[in-house]
Amino acid sequence: MPGGTPQTLRPFLWRAANLYPDTEIVSRTHEGMTRTTYAEYADQVGRLANALDEAGIDDGDRVATVCWNHDRHFETYFAAPSTGAQLHTVNPLLPDEHLQYIVEDAQDRIIFVDPSLAEKVAGAYDEDAFESVEQFVVIGSEVPDVGLPNAVAYDDFVGGQDTEYDWPQLSGETPAGMCYTSGTTGKPKGVEYTQQMLWSHTMAELTPMGMNIADTDVVMPVVPMFHVNAWGMPYATAAAGAKHVYPGPSPDPEDLAHLIEEEGVTITAGVPTVWLGLLEYLEDNEVDLSTLDEIYIGGAAAPESVIRAYDDLGVTVVHAWGMTETSPIGSTATLKGTLEDADYETQLDKRGKQGLVLPGLEFKVVRDDGERIEWDGEDFGELLIRGPWVTTEYHQRPAANEQDFEDDWLRTGDIVTVDEDGYMDIVDRADDVIKSGGEWISTQELENTMMGHDAVSEAAVIGVPHERYQERPVGFVVRREGTELSDDDLEGELSALLDAEFPSFWKPEKYVFIDEVPKTATGKFSKKDLREEYADESLLSE
Ligand code: AMP
What is the pTM of this model? Predict the structure, then answer.
């Protein structure tokens, strides 16, 4: 059969190491700034691949990371998948129960963890859930004394290994990556990325319709590497032979400003909250942004005011949309050539939308009645998408697969309009999950815990628009008859209850005491009605 070699990641590394051996990979780490080159990086990837072999990692085994954005994490990005193993990036912000669930569901065999996250992982450690895990590898030269069983320092793990590795020729169908998403109901769902999915996503991201990355660029992904491969940027940056800048653990606006100035960052990306934070910082601080061409904002809607504010600073915001299921970039709101001469407000209107699907993808938008919508910017329906880097199933979730896919189309759960120019615009989400600062909050889990309190008979949580975090949860509480607790005391007790179980950012911003949660015809809570009545920004300023 005619054809080329399979679409796999490794040739991207080969090209970077051989054509750009001196180009830098710079990281802010827990030990300060580190600088390396593609040539050194490729050697490190070889060492790590040999170390994985020595640890007994076989084809198809899952290698997990619980790490921030830095060069060591990037080493796992090429090493694990190129040996034939599968890299599973784990979100450290998840509640313990979810961490346990996904480690068990993925059957991770080895977990790489940052020193600053080791305590969190040790806290979530549970012998049964972590039964498949044979070893923890803590990034750096020391293992912190937090009780992780069978832990070794990264430097020792790779130390003494050969830089040469006999890379196998993998097929495009070989699973290469994995990331979990969470939905309204139930447990997080695993999405697996094959070599071919990551390859094709990388190629699309390199184009002007994606992130337009060239070897002259300096690329800083602020979006976490545990969240859908930092939107694929580490791979695309390597494919282009461009310089990488990794902002390390919990960077604040000052760290980002400093890195942009010092390293000459040209392209960066992250959720809106990050860029709102930087804008605030820029109000009081003199920062040289002259190298910065583009900020890709996605994960949640980019406010028009932010796009405008960065325009005033000479930096172009490109709004991007994607999902864990779409590897993740599905669309960007780049300007079509035909709009180049349009007035600023018309352009801004287009740039504020979720935009144009990337070449290689197809979409359709289907109304409740099953008909396709008109592309008039008004008619709306659910977005379905398919293409080489859009998954067609979840890992071991037959019920979700039944519900979320229609043949090879992914049902996104996003309700959108499409205008005459083909720009897609999200008007609502089909489900109730809250997205705060780019991170999911499951309202259902909060409700279940709140309803576990003796004095509560009903509890519902909805997202209320918030300037900084896009959305914050507000809890609606119906007290049980005859309870004596004051509203203040009950609020305090609920907060303590939720604090014990969830990350602090999950806690409702406010509680509202009501007589009854509105219900649908089938007796379920009608959050739509709650939202209509209460979901106004003013609720949080009262
Ligand atoms: P995740 O799988 O966590 O990346 O979340 C995917 C979901 O985030 C999408 O289905 C959208 O609901 C939302 N999302 C992603 N990007 C955007 C965006 N640019 N504007 C609005 N919502 C977005």
Answer: 0.85
